[in-house]
Amino acid sequence: METYIVRFYRRALSTAEDAVGTVEHVGSGRRAGFTGGRELLERLLSGGDGAESVVADPDPVLPHEP
Fold first, then answer.
1. How many structural domains are present in the chain?
2. Range of the domain at 8
3. HSE-up of 3 (CA within 13 Å, CB side)?
């Protein structure tokens, strides 16, 4: 079983084709954007393939301001 996090950033109530957001594959940490119901379904069925790898830096170095 695959686990995903789906974030919707914009959605019209009238149609699924107006949905915009991201799909994150929990197992790999890969994230891909989608625009519309068809792309959302493609992202879910691909299992995270072709998505951008997103790995959080546990200790980011912030720029020092003088």
1. 1
2. 4-53
3. 4
